[in-house]
Amino acid sequence: MTTLNLTPDHRPTTLVGTIPPIAEHPRLTVIGTGYLGATHAVSMAVLGYEVLGVDVDAAKIALLASGRVPFYEPGLPEKLREALDTGRLRFTTDFTEAAEWGDVHFICVGTPQAHDSNAADLTYVDRAFATLSSAITRRALIVGKSTVPIGTAARLTELVRASSPVGERVELAWNPEFLREGYAVEDTLHPDRLVFGVQSEWAEAQLRAAFRPILDAGTPLVIADLATAELVKVAANSFLATKISYINAMAEVCEATGADVNILASALAYDSRIGSRFLKPGLGFGGGCLPKDIRAFIHRAEELGVGQAVTFLREVDGINQRRRTRTVDVIREMVGGSLEGVPVAALGAAFKPNSDDIRDAPALDVARMLSAEGAIVTIYDPEAMPNARRAYPELSFAPSLPEAVRGAEVVALLTEWAEFREARPDDLGRLVAHRRIVDGRHALNADEYRARGWEYRALGRPVESRTVELLSDARD
Ligand code: UDX
Questions:
Q1: Pathway, per UniProt (predicted)?
Q2: Per-residue pLDDT, 22
Q3: What domains, with CATH codes, occur in the chain?
Q4: Of all protein residues, whose CA lies closest to atom 20 belonging to ligand 1?
């Protein structure tokens, strides 16, 4: 096990010296059972811990308790049933039960973008910490996992002390989570690293006990102070967003010069200092994390007086947004300059494949922009249709891929689901009005489509560009 130990110098010593015994297998509660919390609760139970999942949403708790996952996440339903069968995983809406039962409480509630600014909305985090700490009557550790602005853990430490009936016997730690949707179980059970932001040896020991099987498997561990632990998460997401926008900025330059961004990306990726991961050009990033995390980071950095250090993230956001408008421009160009009354098939609604998450989804943004210009847009997504329909009842949806492309003047691939990548150009070609396709994710074989008479376009590539296989990584 690799341990980058920054302690003891960085750790306040108030609680050191009175360290109570560590439970071999601490009892874990997980507050908030969304993507993060449900996956964490299930995975910890599978690893051998007794776990209590807690949520204010009774319907969600009832679903999970009956072995059903309220969202699409490959592999999670099987693991949920496996965990329930062991008898180690239970669910409740009762915070008092959780407070009395648990040794280590993980807070996994959402921190969405606030409605009126770029800041993170901390209402749910604050409420979870306050409700739980006011009900805890014994020594316990509350561990924040939610993505929060730097300084939140320090503020919550005060809040917990003030609201807990047992004062400093309830301690706070931070343990950022790096899981990706679509790979949530794998990322939780086999993370690249664990980060523990702690204020005492006792807290560190509790977390080591809570993650023992993962640490025993050789997972690197970084011990940090609270602020660094909070910062690791936003810094990681900012870096990933920057890498994607970097290659998409190069795509803009390619478009102006006739260069080919796929050849460029391949050549860059062979440099092991750069690598191929998160260097895939296209429609850019969306989802519930990357876009809102960089905006909240800019906001927080400005509050802290270091806004200049992250001004580049505004450009990262700007480049990302421009990919969406540029996709609409290419589609408009292909049909001769006006989208009014033009049938367009929009393939994809989720922000990425293997997810039903439509938060800040580039695909739906493009569909809405096309529709605003008068195009007759028909959307199809293998998993995200119910969410998309609920959020945008004014848009039109088709029940299948063939239905979506039937009669289309242009097909736009916006989320690279396997179903779209594997579709045969001739099969689609027989259904469309015109064989025109915009590959918003560089996911299709350009040569094959052209050979079948399709006009094929992709962002950042010359009109007549040939297929270039981007380096792929099995972990993406
Ligand atoms: C991200 C982080 O990867 C994860 O560590 C963190 O915990 C949560 O945020 P996630 O939102 O699940 O995870 O999606 P991710 O796989 O990172 O993809 C984000 C977006 O970037 C998607 O819209 C994807 O299509 C896009 N993307 C990704 C690219 O456009 N190009 C790439 O090369 C990689």
A1: Nucleotide-sugar biosynthesis; UDP-alpha-D-glucuronate biosynthesis; UDP-alpha-D-glucuronate from UDP-alpha-D-glucose: step 1/1
A2: 53
A3: 28-224 (3.40.50.720), 237-457 (3.40.50.720)
A4: 285
